[in-house]
Prior knowledge:
Layout: E1 3-5, E2 12-14, E3 17-19, H1 29-42, E4 46-48, H2 57-65, E5 74-79, H3 94-108, E6 113-118, H4 127-139, E7 143-149, H5 153-166, E8 171-175, H6 189-196, E9 199-200, H7 232-236, H8 244-247, H9 249-255, H10 258-274, H11 278-287, E10 296-297, H12 302-309, H13 318-325, H14 341-346
Parallel strand pairs: 3-4, 3-10, 4-5, 5-6, 6-7, 7-8, 8-9
Antiparallel strand pairs: 1-2
Amino acid sequence: MEYRTVGRTGVKVSSLCLGTMTFGDNADEAESGRIFEACLEAGVNFIDTADVYSGGVSEEIVGRLIAGRRDDLVIVTKVFGRTAAGVNGGGSSRRHIVRAVEASLRRLNTDRLDYYLLHQFDDSVALEETLHALDDLVRRGLVLYVGASNFAAWQYMKALGISEREGLERFSLIQPMYNLVKRQAEVEILPLALSERLGVISFSPLAAGLLTGRYRDAHRDPHRDPHRDPQGDAHRGSHATQGRLVENQRYKLRYGVPAYHQTSERFVDYAAEAGVNPVTLAVSWCASHPAVTAPIIGASSLEQLLPSLAAAEHVMSAAMRAEISALSPEVPPAHDRREEEPARQARP
């Protein structure tokens, strides 16, 4: 396992981060324990959770699993989602953040959080208010570092600017979505992270399972004539009838674009030709971006986890990364002046 430094904090973490969204949901406590132990055995010391995962049960399971080895692990949790009844049961107000961090500490059975992230941007609260609340948590010793997930680049930068201006604890860790079909982070978020020395734990490296190949043919016409396809349905794989992309409306909307499925098919074929499990290859591709500290891997079972864990040992060459990147549409430059890119990239 490779260990990387989170931004400019000096904290060293494994190049893979265990995501625990399935703990207490798709994975019961026993299976969660097997997943957790396999990760620790492989050298993972980086654990991500959130107060809304499984209604707080994920944090409770993690709290029991880390008992006796808390100091060996780097724990991330998040705040924003609704965790209580009433009009103030969620969001990024000082009131909710203070209540939420105390509840997370109890569930995780720890006296401090290594990283505490805003789960989403809350436009109903002045960002200054939220950042002052996070700074207070750091000063109280309840939180060591702060950050955010699911922000746009301008929102991350606005937060950094406010923290600089007002002498507040700045973001150290960010959590964007990033995978082969969702590459928007490459336009501004990942360059921002490199420029500002922010740690990055990217989520959804498998595109909710799309890049595993299990959803092949999900966007094909079920009435098409297979005889017109020289490769045939048997070669292309089966149409999954279960899983997030067919059962969960949020993921169906997020990954329902036909072009994403076409990219997935090209990628799965590439992985087969390379002789590498597509899960391993998808995670390794994410981890190979210079701004990414650690992709978040997760699973509902130990068997499902193992190919993701194998990415820690997979060597992603620059040539292979370029070949895989070419399987999805080109990402435009942030300024949209494509004619300037060759000259810019040629500069020393």
